[in-house]
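Reopening this one. Same input as before:
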Amino acid sequence: MSVEIITESNDKVTNNVIEYLIANNTSFIRKNNEFFSGFTMLLDNTSKSSPKTRVWHRRAKRNLIPKQIQASPFLFYLKREEDPVNKAIEKIITEGCTNDYIGGYNEEEQHNKIYDLYLAKRYGLTIPNTLITTSKNELLKFKKQNKVIITKAIKYPFFYKYPSEYFNCNGTFIVQQKDINKLNNYFFVSIFQSYIEKKYEVRVFFYKNRYYPMAIISQNDDKTKIDFRNYNIERPNRCLPFHMPDSELNKLKELMIYKKLSSGSIDLIVTPDNNFVFLEVNPQGQFHWLSESCNYYIEMDIANDLS
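Same output, byte for byte:
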């Protein structure tokens, strides 16, 4: 059975996995999101089973919009029409055969860190105190109760481009009292969390029933101290292979089973008291640097599984 890979042209993980697939003499079709890929599926009264396709949905989605109409003024509408087709394709292929569809578009689109925090608490994981509000008064109460608080994008980091310049947010940052004072009594719905002191951060990539944890020593750098994703390119954080306690790993496994995720990246904090705090799970999260830093050879494991 040939493997269909849905990804992006600049994804290093995909490139590495393909090298192993070639070494294994495994046939594959790569579909990059930047380029149109034709697709046909027939649903009629004689069809008895789902299409027999093995898919590794690494990043992005199938691009079903031909190049000649990608500059159309109606592109936004076309993408809205494309969206349910991609979601339906995935649901049909995975119907009763989830082992042949790894990763996915549906879970990435539905990725919701608020709901993930709710579920994590249900499965016994510790989470940061979290407030989602439009009220200045509620925020003031939360700040008083938690002393130091942070905020970040609920899902999409802010980005706005002018013809000659652009603006973007700094990811996670501490909310000062002076910031709150500037707010109106009501503001756009935002997320706030108690600031958690860190010993280090942990990124766990999982693929099916395999888990690959990495410790990120982010506290020795003021730039990454609040959030390691405020990357220091000149002096990257030290990253080490890490052993997760079975008690915490089992909670994560239960959460991933409930969410029906076959792969993704989990972010956690380890406090100075060695307690684990769950932050979020990203269904299409990057893991090239995790694999490389820890010598996990995750791409080889994935290729061997697909072969």
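So the earlier flakiness isn't reproducible anymore. For the record, The CA atoms of residues 74 and 80 lie 10 Å apart.
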